[in-house]
Amino acid sequence: MTSQVRGVQLARLLGQWHALPGRRRSPDYAALAGAVRGLLADGRLPLGVRLPAERELAEALRISRTTVTAAYRQLRESGHLASRRGAGSWTMLPGTHRVASTGLWTPLDDRDMIDLGVAALAAPPELLPAARAAAEDLPRYLGGAGYHPTGVIELREAVAAGYTARGLPTSPDQIMVTSGTQHALDLVLRLALAPGGNVLVESPTYPNALAALAARRARITTHGLATDAAGWDADLLLGSLRQGRPKLAYLIPDFQNPTGHLMPAELRERVVAAAHAAGTDLVIDESFVDLPLDGTELPPPVATFDRHSRVISIGGMSKPYWGGLRIGWVRASAPQVQRLAAARVGVDMASPVLDQLVAVHLLADAPAIVAARRTQLAAQRDALTDALARRLPDWRVTAPRGGVTLWVELDGPISSALARAAEEVGVRLAPGPRFGLDGTLERFLRLPFTLPAADLAEAVGRLAAVRYDLDRASRPRWQEPAVIA
Ligand SMILES: Cc1ncc(COP(=O)(O)O)c(C=O)c1O
């Protein structure tokens, strides 16, 4: 795949690059090179794309070609650009980088980095005993070939029992175990969406869901969520379903990522009815359903209102238990599960047996594990909101009633610039635009509260310092001169 970014496109991505912190101290070419490195670090400029020719970028940015030449030279020297004479220059990363769990590239030697790009907890203490007990169970499976495309029966029973306990009677043949919720989404899209199909998603939404949709070349329309506690606008959401008649809608009604919103029961019922009338399949991501905080009561699962097999629910172990388990699932009708399992043999055949057995043991201990997670998350959320109120009082925060993230409204459209500057002081951020489609959401930042309180307070301190520096950065010097006639 060869792709190329044109001068005007790169200029748009670079935005206010000349206003980055420290600008007063660094020459233009270094600031430009730094801004390109920042775009690579936050994933907005992919690896292996051809950058515009020097002259083209100089014209798009209205700066001298020598500045671009010097910036490209610096990027080559730092290992961020490979050039072949006469052919062009391609983005790359120096060998000291690895792919982070966010899918982004991060430095290898980043032990001091506080990673606020990932919204997931470290493993609970119960994980190791669960793994040992699972190994003891393994002999029961070793006599067979070990391929279970829908999952081992014990785990399917445990997951089905979880739904039934939430008021949604479910049998094990309605469950397919997957290698994580993301895998569940990918499989469902393969089955339910032809390439180029029309999909409705929330904005902001989970970036890796957008990546899965992009892989299906989906045509995406968005429903904008309000920043206040209401979240979804019922009329607009139902109107988008009725008028747009998308093939599929992907929604996260339980402590939405990134906003933390919880969809009320009444809207759940109306969304299912509207989807049925419009011929839309609903993919409901329940990744955070186990994590209500402060005793918040959960509305019924969206699938409770489904009479026509319109709702496919996906979920998994990553948020309440551990992402490293890579265990997720799909809840659908039994025939849909059979079709998904058939599609899966062309992808990965089945999930690992041992990991599924670990999941069975963790689910057997669910009430205790999940209660401890909620207590921990509520305390960390409060530590984060307190630190923000003290150090960055102009940022607006609505504390969510569950989940693991704050969706912060910043005091200006500075999210990407802040993320680049924060990287310099050892804080990794996921800037607002990563949660949308079109480079908007610059006024927003997702902050997870999955790290210990002390790390969160330290990170906020560093962000406050960097925020102050952004203001002190010099104004662009090459604004059009006023005509004097
Ligand atoms: C809404 C949502 N869906 C899916 C995932 C991916 O989960 P998993 O690790 O189970 O693949 C995440 C993880 O952040 C998420 O927030």
UniProtKB/TrEMBL annotation:
The protein's name in its UniProt record: Transcriptional regulator, GntR family
UniProt keyword annotation of DNA-binding present: yes
Coiled coil: none
Alphabetically ordered keywords of this record: DNA-binding, Pyridoxal phosphate, Transcription, Transcription regulation
Lineage: Bacteria, Bacillati, Actinomycetota, Actinomycetes, Micromonosporales
Organism: Micromonospora haikouensis
Limits of the HTH gntR-type domain: 26-94
SUPFAM superfamilies on file: PLP-dependent transferases, Winged helix' DNA-binding domain
Keyword check for Nuclease: no
Cross-referenced Pfam families: Aminotran_1_2, GntR
Entry's family note: In the C-terminal section; belongs to the class-I pyridoxal-phosphate-dependent aminotransferase family.
GO molecular function, one term: pyridoxal phosphate binding
